[in-house]
């Protein structure tokens, strides 16, 4: 950080210097302890310490300095030039930083997209009519809205891209995720409808067990149902009983000893 | 329990689905039938199941399943139809219309109709247009072009989903059944001409919506509708009014099919009953006719979701996985065994393979494979006893397939160290290691792409070679060694069209490989020299089972019309025994069996014996004994012991048939004294099905 000499005279002080002067009190103490974080600040703390003392002495004893107009002007110009320089330097630094950042982003974006060869293949392959013969299919999330619009003109209905053999080993199926979700939910709704209408409430259905046992009921010597025991009854109770029995056995063994 | 039979001791291994009582639809065993479509020109029936499989049955070849397209988890077909030129289309809840290529045995393309799930599909009477009814209430018209289908236009959109469609025979109007109403559309304008409201309940009020499951449009303008209230209703399409209403069931009536002559139709109900309606004159000499319900048939236990009407028979299929053909007596010309009821329950190909050395059985299901080790017994007894097992059958492996596709075929090597299976897109090969009752599995990666969509897989007897028949017609030989494989050779398809039921058979000495699968006949290849050796002359019925005998290298072939041929491979001609059998002909009861022979095997020490089985019997053919003629009793389990030896010798004949194990899925000779038979009791199949309609029986 550029530091201006804080003079007792009316020299234009930069914003940073103002801030520093404000923080001088705290920084003096920190400098004594040697715990300052940044180098420039410590420098700032060091300088004004000496200057202030000198300035104070001068003010108390002697008359103010006599400055010629030219020197003052020169000094002022110098100050201005210095300020402009700083600003310019800052601007260029920022510009460079921004440039570097832009390049980095472009690099990353390029890395994210598929290599050009594959994109070429996709565009050429989508022109031909490819059979939907499933190879090792993977659904790749591609934003292919542009191509969708293109293909929309070819055949009225083919919006979903079904492309095959991008590379030798694997084949890809590019689908728009939005369409897939809609399709799945509709298919599920349709299956729910069928299930409800055939097996839902209001239908007169019986269980397979009862169906197979119907014959047993009408025999001259009645027999039990095909699945007579319900093994799923009272599972929790049975588990509790087993656990209790185990603990009781352990207790019994202990008291015996 | 194991039984000891007449000559060999046998151990009965129950089918894997037998012990579990859980209900998982389609998970174990066959899936229910969802749609059937009959093609009059070729006399073929296309059947689609709830797991997405589509099977084609050739009704002229003794109702044999000649082609199939494996299913897919996401494909739930709701409609199936034939269009002109033998083209098969299906549409389902995934919203896509699929065309099947019957020559190349794959799916040509799947076109999204963009209307949501598709509930119904109908081809126009001319066969050039296709109509689909969608979830969003739209009816879409597609034009069938020579290589694809093209969207033409939408009809007026209705409020609720279109569940059934029917064309008027002239192609000018369409009836569409929806929920609580039926609409009649004019094809040219696409607008709805009439909207007929269906009562929710016959003569009553009900809260449940009335779903019109099926409609049929007759040429005189009558629309027949069947709905979920159990009614069959006749409407007049010119005025849009109800003419007649029949209440035929307490549950839904789910399907309807009209004959081509429009004088009879058939409906199927959710209770499993199939009703036949006929147009009969009001009085014997009047010209006025009316529709009368004539015959009920109860061949199903669960919902009959689809029916079809061929010129001579009623075809029905439903959730209980049976496919029933009921020929109509008045339509059948010749009253022979052809007029009997045919029920297809069990698959027409073998889904179980066996490793004899390690006594393992590999069961193939739709999405997984199960490996079982057979139990054993140390007890002994006499013939016909059931012995207790000392060691139970062991479930060693449950191998789930990756992906949504069904497994097409699978095989385990005779030594038990390799398992291979194929789906439409991939081929899987696994290496098994056994250490002290533990089994570990390692997958062989990077299988070549040309092996996928295999129709049949077979290992050689010494487990060093793998033979794969692909659906392009090529036959691949892969050498297996250690944990890796090497592609040796590919036999390219010979002349003739490829058929789906491609069967392979390899000789125990590893020299010969027989492959059926083209219409040109069975080809026999020399494996050591990698060239075609000879071709068995073509027969007009498809091959159902094939095997090569040890030592003599005789190829035994069974066809779907129950003919069995024996062909000597080294001599390149039929054997003398085969010629004798052909000259005399088989016993008429043998030819009238209605399930095909699915497996043939041999006894290592008895070259005169051939063991074969179908779903309801297994038979040991003893070539040294005389052949039965039509007058002798074919099925004579135990010759009477009190008769004299002379009589016994006279009645003994070559075909020793046993029906003690049925229904039989698989039977093979494990070693000289052991036979393994896998049964699949019908009750077990029913236990896996969805719940049926409650039927009130008196006294329960």
Give descriptors for this structure.
heterodimer; A: 257 residues; mainly alpha; two-stranded parallel sheet; 3% strand; elongated; B: 700 residues; mainly beta; Methylamine Dehydrogenase, Chain H; four-stranded antiparallel β-sheet; 4 helices; 4% helix; disordered N terminus
Per-chain topology:
The complex is a heterodimer of chains A (257) and B (700).
Chain A: H1 15-33, H2 39-61, H3 69-112, H4 116-125, E1 137-140, H5 145-154, E2 171-174, H6 177-199, H7 208-217, H8 235-256
Parallel strand pairs in A: 1-2
Helix pairs in contact in A: 1-2
Chain B: E1 2-4, E2 9-14, E3 33-39, E4 44-49, E5 54-58, E6 64-69, E7 77-83, E8 87-92, E9 96-101, E10 106-112, E11 118-123, E12 129-134, E13 139-144, E14 149-154, E15 164-167, E16 173-177, E17 181-186, E18 192-197, E19 212-217, E20 222-227, E21 231-236, E22 241-247, E23 253-258, E24 264-269, E25 273-281, E26 289-298, E27 306-309, E28 313-317, E29 323-327, E30 342-344, E31 352-355, E32 360-364, E33 368-373, E34 386-387, E35 394-400, E36 409-412, E37 418-422, E38 427-435, E39 438-444, E40 454-459, E41 465-470, E42 475-481, E43 484-491, E44 504-506, E45 512-515, E46 522-526, E47 531-536, E48 543-548, E49 554-559, E50 564-568, E51 573-574, H1 576-584, H2 588-591, E52 599-602, E53 609-613, E54 618-622, H3 645-651, E55 655-658, E56 664-671, E57 674-679, H4 682-687
Parallel strand pairs in B: 2-57
Antiparallel strand pairs in B: 1-2, 1-34, 3-4, 4-5, 5-6, 7-8, 8-9, 9-10, 11-12, 12-13, 13-14, 15-16, 16-17, 17-18, 19-20, 20-21, 21-22, 23-24, 24-25, 25-26, 27-28, 28-29, 29-30, 31-32, 32-33, 33-35, 36-37, 37-38, 38-39, 40-41, 41-42, 42-43, 44-45, 45-46, 46-47, 48-49, 49-50, 50-51, 52-53, 53-54, ...
């Amino acid at each position: 950080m550029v530091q201006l000499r804080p003079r007792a005279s009316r020299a234009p002080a930069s914003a940073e210097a103002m801030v520093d002067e404000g923080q001088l009190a705290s920084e003096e103490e920190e400098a004594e302890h040697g715990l300052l974080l940044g180098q420039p600040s410590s420098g700032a703390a060091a300088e004004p310490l000496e200057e202030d003392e000198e300035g104070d002495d001068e003010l108390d004893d002697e008359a103010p300095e006599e400055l010629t107009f030219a020197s003052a002007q020169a000094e002022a110009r110098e100050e201005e030039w210095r300020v402009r320089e700083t600003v310019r330097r800052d601007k260029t630094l920022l510009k460079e930083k921004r440039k570097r950042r832009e390049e980095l982003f472009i690099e990353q974006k390029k890395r994210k997209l598929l290599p050009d060869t594959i994109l070429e293949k996709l565009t050429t392959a989508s022109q031909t009519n490819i059979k939907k013969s499933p190879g090792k299919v993977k659904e790749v999330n591609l934003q292919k809205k542009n191509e969708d619009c293109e293909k929309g003109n070819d055949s009225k209905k083919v919006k979903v891209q079904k492309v095959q053999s991008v590379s030798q080993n694997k084949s890809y199926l590019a689908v728009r995720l939005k369409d897939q979700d809609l399709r799945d939910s509709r298919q599920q709704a349709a299956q729910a409808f069928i299930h409800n209408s055939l097996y839902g409430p209001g239908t007169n259905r019986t269980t397979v067990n009862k169906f197979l046992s119907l014959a047993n009921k009408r025999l001259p010597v009645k027999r039990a149902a095909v699945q007579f025991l319900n093994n799923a009854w009272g599972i929790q109770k049975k588990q509790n009983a087993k656990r209790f029995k185990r603990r009781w056995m352990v207790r019994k063994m202990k008291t015996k000893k | 329990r194991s039984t000891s039979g007449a000559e060999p001791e046998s151990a009965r291994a129950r089918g894997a689905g037998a012990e579990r009582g859980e209900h998982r639809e389609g998970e174990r065993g066959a899936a229910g039938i969802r749609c059937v479509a009959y093609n009059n020109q070729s006399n073929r029936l296309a059947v689609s199941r709830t797991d997405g499989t589509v099977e084609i049955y050739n009704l002229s070849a003794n109702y044999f399943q000649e082609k199939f397209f494996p299913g897919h988890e996401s494909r739930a077909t709701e409609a199936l139809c034939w269009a002109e030129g033998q083209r098969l289309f299906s549409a389902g809840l995934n919203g896509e219309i699929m065309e099947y290529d019957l020559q190349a045995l794959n799916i040509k393309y799947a076109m999204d109709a963009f209307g949501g799930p598709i509930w119904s599909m109908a081809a126009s009477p001319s066969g050039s247009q296709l109509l689909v009814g969608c979830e969003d209430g739209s009816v879409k018209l597609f034009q069938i072009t020579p290589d694809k289908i093209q969207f033409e236009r939408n009809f007026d959109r209705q409020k609720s989903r279109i569940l059934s469609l029917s064309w008027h025979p002239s192609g000018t109007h369409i009836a569409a059944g929806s929920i609580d109403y039926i609409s009649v559309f004019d094809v040219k304008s696409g607008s709805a001409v009439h909207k007929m409201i269906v009562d929710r309940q016959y003569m009553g009020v009900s809260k449940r919506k009335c779903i019109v499951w099926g409609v049929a449009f007759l040429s005189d303008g009558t629309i027949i509708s069947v709905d979920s209230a159990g009614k069959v209703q006749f409407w007049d399409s010119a005025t849009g009014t109800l003419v007649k209403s029949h209440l035929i069931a307490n549950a839904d009536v789910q399907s309807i099919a009209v004959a081509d002559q429009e004088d009879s139709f058939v409906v199927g109900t959710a209770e499993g009953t199939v009703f036949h309606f006929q147009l009969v004159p009001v009085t014997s000499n009047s010209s006025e006719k009316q529709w009368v319900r004539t015959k009920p048939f109860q061949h199903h236990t669960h919902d009959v979701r689809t029916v079809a009407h061929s010129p001579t028979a009623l075809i029905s299929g439903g959730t209980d996985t049976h496919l029933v053909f009921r020929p109509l007596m008045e339509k059948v010309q010749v009253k022979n065994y052809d007029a009997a009821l045919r029920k297809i329950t069990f698959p027409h190909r073998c889904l179980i393979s066996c490793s004899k050395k390690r006594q393992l059985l590999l069961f193939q299901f739709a999405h997984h494979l199960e490996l079982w080790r057979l139990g054993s017994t140390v007890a002994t007894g006499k013939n016909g006893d059931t012995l207790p097992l000392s060691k139970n059958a062991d479930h060693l492996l449950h191998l789930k397939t990756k992906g949504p596709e069904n497994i097409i075929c699978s095989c385990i090597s005779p030594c038990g160290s390799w398992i291979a299976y194929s789906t439409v897109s991939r081929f899987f090969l696994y290496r098994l290691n056994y250490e002290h009752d533990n089994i570990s599995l390692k997958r062989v990666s990077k299988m070549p792409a040309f092996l996928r969509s295999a129709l049949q897989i077979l290992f050689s007897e010494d487990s060093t070679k793998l033979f794969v028949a692909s659906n392009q017609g090529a036959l691949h030989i892969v050498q297996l060694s250690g944990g890796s494989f090497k592609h040796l050779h590919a036999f390219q398809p010979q002349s003739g069209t490829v058929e789906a039921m491609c069967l392979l058979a390899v000789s125990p000495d590893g020299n010969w490989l027989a492959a059926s699968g083209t219409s040109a006949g069975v080809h026999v290849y020399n494996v050591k020299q990698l060239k075609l050796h000879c071709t068995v002359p073509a027969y007009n019925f498809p091959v159902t089972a094939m095997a090569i005998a040890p030592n003599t290298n005789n190829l035994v072939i069974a066809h779907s019309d129950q003919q069995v041929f024996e062909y000597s491979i080294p001599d390149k001609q039929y054997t003398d025994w085969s010629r004798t059998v052909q000259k005399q002909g088989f016993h008429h009861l043998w030819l009238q069996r209605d399930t095909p022979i699915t497996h043939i095997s041999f006894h290592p020490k008895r070259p005169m014996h051939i063991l074969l089985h179908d779903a309801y019997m297994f038979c040991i053919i003893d070539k040294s004994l005389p052949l039965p003629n039509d007058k002798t009793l074919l099925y004579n389990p135990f010759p009477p012991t009190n008769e004299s030896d002379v009589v016994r010798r006279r009645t003994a004949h070559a075909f020793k048939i046993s029906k003690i194990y049925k229904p039989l899925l698989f039977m093979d000779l494990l070693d000289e004294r052991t036979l393994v038979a896998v049964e699949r009791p019908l009750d077990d199949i029913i236990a896996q099905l969805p719940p049926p309609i409650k039927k009130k029986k008196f006294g329960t």
